[in-house]
Amino acid sequence: MGRLTSDERTKLIERLDRSFQAMPRWVKAATKHAMGAPSHHPGTGKKFESFREVIEAAADETLLILKEDFEENDDLVPEVLQ
Questions:
Q1: What are phi and psi of 47, to 5 degrees?
Q2: 40/53 Cα distance (integer angstroms)
Q3: Which neighbouring-strand residues pair with 47?
Q4: pTM
Q5: CB within 8 A of 79, min separation 6: which ones?
Q6: Which residues contact 19 (CB under 8 A, 6 or more apart)?
Q7: What is the C-alpha separation between 82 and 72, in angstroms, rounded?
């Protein structure tokens, strides 16, 4: 899997977060559980308060895997065209 440019990463984080927010509560819970995401930022020790904070701290590879998973489950919202 390739590296994301800063712009690609920002857009993907926005899309994943919007997709997550559109999910029913039970799907959100299942997604968080399946991710096995840490409860605290590994670099700062600060507790994560939102899904967005978790994915902002994630590696590019993790974001791309999430994108694939969301696509496979028909949970990925369309890109916002500017």
A1: -70, 135
A2: 10
A3: 40
A4: 0.88
A5: 11, 15
A6: 70, 75, 76, 77
A7: 25
DSSP structural state of residue 59: -
Distance CA 46, CA 65 (A): 24
Q: What is the CA radius of gyration of the chain?
A: 12
Residue 40 bridge partners (DSSP): 47
Tens digit of each residue's pLDDT, the chain (82 residues): 568 999 999 999 999 999 999 999 999 988 888 888 888 888 889 999 999 999 999 999 999 999 999 999 999 999 877 6
Buried b (16+ CB within 10 A) or exposed e, 12-30: bbebbbebbeebeeeeeee
DSSP state of 47: B
| 3 state SS of 74 | coil
